[in-house]
Design goal:
By secondary structure, the protein is α/β, with parallel strands linked by helices. It has eleven helices and eleven strands. It is globular and about 55 Å long.
Length: about 375
Amino acid sequence: MKSRKRVRPLPQPEECGVWLDASQLKKKSHQTIIPCISSRFNPLSRRQPTDSVLVEFTQTKSPQLCTKQTSMYSFFSLDGNRSKRSCIADNNILTEETSPDCEKRNALEAQDVMNHSPTICRLKSSIQYLARKDLPKLAYQKLKGKSPGVIFLPGFASDMNAQKAVALEDFCKSLGHSFIRFDYTGCGNSEGNMKECTIGKWKKDVLSILDDVSEGPQILVGSSMGGWLMLLVALARPEKIAALVGVAPAADHFVTVFNELPLEEKKSAEEKDEWKLASKYSEEGFYTIPYSFIKEAENHCLLNSPIPITSPIRLIHGMKDEEVPWHVSMQIADRVLSTDVDVILRKHGLHRMSEKDDIKLLVYTIDDLIDKLTTLG
């Protein structure tokens, strides 16, 4: 009589509370093609069969299982945060912080973890200043660690203390990778007058951080206007770019919106040398933009011709974005020469993409990129 083979139960995926598995993005057999836009904005209709452009729709209301690696699971889990605290202390990944209130701080952090916050062992990086000849000093915070490093580029009128920047710093701490966040000239703690700034000057700021502060290949994470700047910087320093991640990237945004104005408003802005750009994120309900800023920005527009960037690119955009239409991410995907481009559309995502699930997706995407780059390296 033949003995029966014992059937082992299949392992069940881990429940990590993250509804999107970035590793599955490349495995889906069916991709959603957007029929409502022309081929000009739809890279899927213009790419060659060998190119890789992915469009993925996500929404927070449909929970999914996640089988991501331990690092990602532990970052968003209670036990993982506790073990990570001891791991960071034991391996001395970050600069040591000695304080008589250490026990009290640990207790407060434990309570923070209980509230399901991604914050882990907040050993804060201190503000430093980059002195530049004939240019304003730039305020920045840097964590030393492994390559590839991550640099966060804020949006217009934002600074390095944005939720996304702090969350990314926490995550890079947990993995031991280097991380830099900074303020543009005239913003936050940096020197300079914002009213005198231009896209070109802020591009120089990013280049200064990349050249004089960072070490090794970097993943640039650009939010809104920072997404425009990351593309410009990638063109200027391709050898230093490991990958790009755009969050509602606002490429050409100011010029595009201005050009859509009635002729009378354009003439008025030119005469007054200012233009009031409506925005719900400003306390006044608008940003006052110098006309000279718009004219200078025209020299940095990218979407009217191919963009010779070949590094991996991930673009995340909310379909409820009222500031920068999600079609801009589709245009970027269409224009870049890279064959490794993923576009992720968040059905209920707003412009800032600062909700908890938005930040989880951003961290998840970067974690997947780091895995890929490390494997290839």
